[in-house]
Specification:
By secondary structure, the protein is mainly beta. Helices cover 0% and strands 30% of the residues. It has no helices and 9 strands. The strands form 2 sheets. Strands 1, 2, 3, 4, 5 and 6 form a 6-stranded antiparallel beta sheet that branches. The termini are far apart.
Length: 161
């Protein structure tokens, strides 16, 4: 038996990997593990931060830190939000996933399939096939030989000139 369990609310004061010390009621604890999502389907790790508000469930011989508590009313709408400290923000609601990424998105895989009724890309520059390519001929391009719009352009891929 581990004895009687007690719950203490406090904040993290020191972090070492997946272990942390907290302070509650002016008392600084030993290191205890922080509960993370980990099962046969998925593993998820969120780094701990000094100042993070948590709960410690402790018995005489062991304990575990759980939860992330906030003083702020951060529920903006009825959606799931993941907000990182650099401003990157994932939002999911009603079948729509919105990604607001601070710097860059990298996708590395053998094959990417995109199926949609319509795809819109807004960018200052688009490189298909890597850097170093040349411009794309659109239906707005004027042929220098005939003086007429080019007739050999894609009817499926559309681009502004």
């Amino acid at each position: 038996m581990y004895g009687e369990a007690r719950i203490y609310f406090g904040e993290i004061v020191e972090v070492k990997g997946n272990f942390a010390k907290i302070i509650h009621n002016g008392i600084r604890t030993d290191f205890y593990p922080y509960l993370q999502k980990n099962n046969n389907f998925k593993k998820s790790f969120t780094p701990l931060a000094v100042g993070q508000k948590v709960a410690l469930i402790k018995s005489d011989e062991s304990g575990v830190i759980i939860g992330d508590f906030s003083d702020e009313d951060e529920i903006i709408d009825n959606a799931e939000h993941v907000i990182f400290n650099d401003g990157t923000h994932f939002k999911y609601k009603d079948g729509v996933l919105e990604l607001l990424v601070a710097k860059e998105i990298k996708i590395k895989c053998e094959k990417v399939n995109v199926e949609a009724k319509k795809v819109e890309i807004k960018s200052e520059e688009i490189n298909l096939g890597g850097n170093g390519g040349i411009g794309v001929v659109t239906g707005e391009c004027i042929c220098p030989f005939t003086g007429s719009p080019h007739s050999d352009f894609s009817k499926k891929v559309k681009a502004l000139k």
